[in-house]
Amino acid sequence: MADNRIYEPFQDGPQPPYLTKHYGRTARMAPEGLLAASPRTPTELAGPKWQNGPDAEKSLVHGAKGLALGQLIRVVVRVLDEDARPQRGALVEIWQANAAGKYQHPVDQRDAPLDENFRSWGRGLTDDQGEVDFLTIRPGAYPVPSSGGWWRPPHIHISAYGDSISSRLVSQIYFPGDPLNPLDGILQSIPDVQARERLMLKHDPSAGIAELALGYRFDLVLRGRAATPLEG
Ligand SMILES: [Fe+2]
Predict the structure, then answer these.
(1) Considering the entire predicted model, what is its pTM?
(2) How confident is the model at residue 45 (pLDDT cuts 50, 70, 90)?
(3) Tens digit of each residue's pLDDT (9 = 90 or more) over 187-203
(4) Using CA atoms, how far apart are residues 168 and 18, in angstroms rounded to an integer?
(5) Does residue 203 lie within any of the structural domains?
(6) What spacing in Å lies between the alpha carbon of 201 and ligand 1's midpoint?
(7) Which of 74, 78, 103, 138 is catalytic?
(8) Is residue 142 annotated as a catalytic residue, yes or no?
(9) 139, part of any domain
(10) Number of C-beta neighbours around residue 159 at 10 A
(11) What's the 202 CA to ligand 1 centre distance in angstroms?
(12) pLDDT, mean of residues 155-159
């Protein structure tokens, strides 16, 4: 793929020169000739490909034959750093079961119905406020196979990428007050009760859509004392 963008050269002030008298290593590493452009390989160019733009994949509920079954919800995810500064341009992905607790995935062999109008994943980029919103449904609970009666509470898997494909945070978010939350082996594997609480969606009517979807918010905090716990 051709990359025809023109980059300004580094300014001398904020960047050190290639050859620095007091830094011996630079004598071995500094170029002696003119710089040559290196080809950009898939490694440098890899990233999400948006067939219809980054806003086209934020709804999980608009199928070919209508809306998905279940309680429609709008989830506004906000990505923040440790100082509560919004993070713009973060790629946020979610994936979840449908209203019957069934995943649209060959690994899920449980006898539960699929919903042809529900797509079990969505993704989008955060805006200037660090926010990205998804229209989805409250997922159903599902039993963990061969677990002796353990049912996963309704939850949404979530991931956010930083500035490269290797910088990624993965976790799960839950619905407050669900009776399965205190019994869930994954949620309860987080020892700190306050940290578990940070994985709860917050009901917020202002995030909803009138007469269509209940509103929820979730702050995904990358670092610091309020950091979002990772998936166990
Ligand atoms: Fe799950």
Answers:
(1) 0.79
(2) low
(3) 988 888 999 999 999 99
(4) 32
(5) yes
(6) 16
(7) 103
(8) yes
(9) yes
(10) 16
(11) 19
(12) 97
Does the annotation count 155 as an active-site position? yes
| 216 among known catalytic residues | no
Nearest by Cα to 116 from 60, 59, 65, 73: 65
Catalytic, 152? Answer yes
- Per the prediction, the chain carries an average pLDDT of 87
Q: Is residue 106 part of a domain?
A: yes
What domain range is 75 assigned to? 62-221
Domains identified in the chain, total number = 1
Q: Is 23 a catalytic residue?
A: no
CA of 139 to the centre of ligand 1 (A): 9
Which CATH number belongs to the domain containing residue 192 in this structure? 2.60.130.10
Please give the distance, rounded to the nearest whole angstrom, from the Cα atom of residue 150 to the centre of ligand 1.
Answer: 13
Which member of 78, 119, 138, 142 is catalytic?
142
Q: Is residue 79 part of a domain?
A: yes
Q: How far is the CA of 154 from the centre of ligand 1 (A)?
A: 8
Q: Is pLDDT of 136 > 60?
A: yes
Selected catalytic residue, list 123, 152, 196, 198: 152
Q: How far is the CA of 179 from the centre of ligand 1 (A)?
A: 17
